């Protein structure tokens, strides 16, 4: 069986390094294109920028439509009676009242195409929940554990593992043991697993902790003679609180998947837990990330594991669990599984949320810095570009090359858009105007019209901001009593930060990550600090 692990830095070939350098080089070429194209020909630069603006204008329309559709779908799925639907799926009879129209179609499909012994019934499924943490407080962790206990699902079919880091010290161990003592009785099995420190060959990150805990789970399942294909593993961070319908929706989707071994499942991350407490710039970023996750839920061809996700234990065993050599083990797990099964792997959306924290620490400046570090870590997913090229093009595999190329270029384009689009959309229209004027003393027609065109497109794009504003206000959790009514007003005004946050916390964070990758300055894991307002 071929290796699917990321090479250690000293093992990387010149070809691997070429693909690590590629995204950074292309980013800087694109960012500087308006300048050097203007020096060659302001007309050429103007055409480049006009094409870029029109492309993103059309994309923005689609994104706004999808965000509204995603928000509406999520709310519909939160209201579904999933226990009733799972009962129908168990007996293969659509008996539920007020069931969605697609429910009967699913029953027919499962009856026709998923036959014993391959069929997994809802009653067969166990849910294992691994909550990974390092130094988070009891106040952060308890609501997460409680959200699992309070789920609209039989907790006696659930296994809870609190996976903590030895480097967190005795306080973290005490927190884990206190939570298990208080809530462990609700589960089929509950316990703590300590991830030792140091571990040779691992980077500091969630991957090593989750993998160490999952290996303990594997031994437990073997002792209990539970089939790993009947076990769905969900990984959570300390602040991740599943919606009460998450496990029911996940069970239904899993049991109606024709090839569940080759699938993973992605709920919708919504950064709303502490949205009322976070500073305004962080609220804008958290809301923007939540809306983008709604968009992705309706675009399964672009969907990859992010943050909390679920996968069958059998598939995790086949992939030797998560990588312990990357700080973006969630997104990387998609590629790891995709190559293990020679391209037979898909991510299915679960249209219910897992609520997460917006970035918040005990000090304002510290919070601004922590937010940049968090987005920078997400942007380190650009390191997967080299991994995909290495596994897809440089190693033998059975995946059709057109399929590898399609995945590769989508991944590359996504990271280039991340690093370049906000800066070019907001600033580049002015460059040909000033350079052409400085060089010739005159302003060409295209260079003169470009800022005006950009201004008109940005004006139309305000409609998209209004859509985002509507969804963000409708998605807010109840306002804490400690805040007065004017806090709601600031939730509207906060959107003036959007241009600034787009540049600093999108473009700049991605540029930073890609530039470090380009020079081989590999990024380590820094846990996003979490604070709780009482």
Polypeptide structure, described:
The chain has 534 residues and is an alpha/beta fold. The chain has helices at 14-40, 42-78, 82-91, 101-113, 138-149, 170-183, 206-223, 246-255, 280-297, 313-318, 329-340, 364-379, 383-393, 401-427, 431-440, 445-475, 486-493, 498-519, and strands at residues 126-133, 158-165, 189-195, 231-236, 241-242, 263-270, 309-312, 346-355. The strands form two sheets. The chain has a five-stranded mixed beta sheet, with helices on both faces. α1 packs across α15 (431-440). The longest helix is centred in the N-terminal third of the chain and has 37 residues, at 42-78.
Oligomeric form: single chain
From the alpha-carbon coordinates, what is the Rg to the nearest angstrom? 24 Å
Q: What global shape is seen?
A: globular
Roughly what percent helix?
Answer: 55-70%
CATH class of the largest domain: Alpha Beta
Percent strand equals 5-15%
CATH arch. level architecture of the largest domain: Alpha-Beta Complex
- The SS-based structural class is alpha/beta
**Structure summary, number of beta strands:** 8
Unreliable runs: 438-443
Q: What is the average of the pLDDT values?
A: 91
What is the fold-level CATH name, i.e. the topology of the largest domain?
Spore Coat Polysaccharide Biosynthesis Protein SpsA, Chain A
CATH homology superfamily of the largest domain: Spore Coat Polysaccharide Biosynthesis Protein SpsA, Chain A
């Amino acid at each position: 069986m071929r290796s699917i692990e990321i090479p250690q830095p000293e093992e990387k070939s010149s070809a691997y390094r070429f693909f690590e350098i590629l995204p950074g080089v292309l980013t800087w070429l694109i960012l500087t294109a308006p300048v050097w194209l203007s020096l060659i020909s302001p007309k050429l630069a103007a055409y480049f920028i006009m094409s870029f603006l029109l492309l993103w204008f059309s994309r923005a329309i689609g994104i706004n439509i999808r965000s509204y559709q995603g928000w509406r779908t999520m709310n519909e799925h939160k209201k579904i009676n999933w226990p009733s639907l799972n009962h129908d799926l168990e007996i293969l009879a659509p008996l539920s009242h007020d069931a969605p129209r697609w429910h009967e179609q699913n029953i027919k499909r499962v009856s026709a195409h998923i036959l014993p012994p391959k069929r997994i019934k809802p009653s067969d499924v166990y849910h294992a929940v691994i909550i990974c943490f390092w130094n988070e407080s009891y106040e952060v962790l308890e609501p997460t554990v409680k959200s699992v206990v309070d789920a609209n699902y039989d907790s006696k079919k659930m296994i809870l593992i609190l996976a903590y880091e030895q480097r967190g010290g005795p306080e973290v161990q005490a927190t884990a043991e206190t939570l298990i003592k208080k809530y462990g009785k609700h589960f089929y099995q509950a316990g703590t697993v300590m991830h030792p420190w140091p571990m040779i060959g691992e980077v500091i990150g969630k991957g090593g902790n989750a993998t160490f805990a999952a290996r303990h789970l594997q031994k437990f399942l073997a002792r209990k003679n539970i089939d790993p294909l009947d076990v769905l593993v969900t990984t959570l961070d300390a602040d991740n609180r599943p919606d009460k319908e998450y496990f029911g929706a996940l069970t239904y989707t899993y049991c109606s998947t024709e090839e569940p071994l080759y699938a993973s499942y992605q709920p919708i991350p919504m950064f709303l837990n502490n949205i009322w407490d976070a500073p305004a710039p962080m609220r804008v970023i958290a809301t923007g990330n939540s809306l983008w996750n709604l968009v992705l839920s309706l675009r399964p061809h672009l969907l990859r594991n992010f943050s909390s996700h679920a996968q069958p234990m059998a598939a995790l065993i086949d992939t030797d669990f998560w990588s312990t050599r990357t700080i973006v083990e969630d997104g990387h797990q998609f590629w790891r599984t995709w190559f293990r099964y020679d391209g037979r792997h898909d991510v299915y959306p679960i249209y219910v949320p897992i609520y997460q924290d917006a970035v918040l620490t005990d000090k304002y400046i510290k919070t601004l810095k922590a937010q940049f570090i968090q987005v920078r870590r997400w942007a380190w997913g650009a390191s997967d570009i080299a991994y995909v090229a290495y596994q897809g093009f440089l190693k033998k595999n059975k995946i059709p090359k057109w399929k590898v190329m399609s995945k590769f270029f989508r991944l590359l384009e996504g990271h280039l858009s991340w690093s370049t689009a906000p800066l070019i959309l907001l600033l580049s229209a002015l460059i040909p105007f000033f350079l052409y004027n400085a060089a010739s003393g005159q302003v060409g027609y295209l260079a003169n019209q470009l800022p005006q065109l950009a201004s008109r497109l940005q004006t139309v794009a305000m409609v998209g901001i209004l859509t985002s504003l509507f969804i963000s206000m409708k998605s807010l959790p109840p306002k804490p009593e400690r805040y007065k009514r004017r806090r709601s007003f600031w939730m509207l005004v906060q959107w003036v930060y959007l241009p600034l946050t787009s540049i600093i916390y999108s473009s700049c964070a991605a540029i930073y990550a890609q530039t470090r990758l380009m020079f081989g300055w590999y990024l380590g894991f820094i846990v996003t600090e979490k604070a709780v307002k009482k």
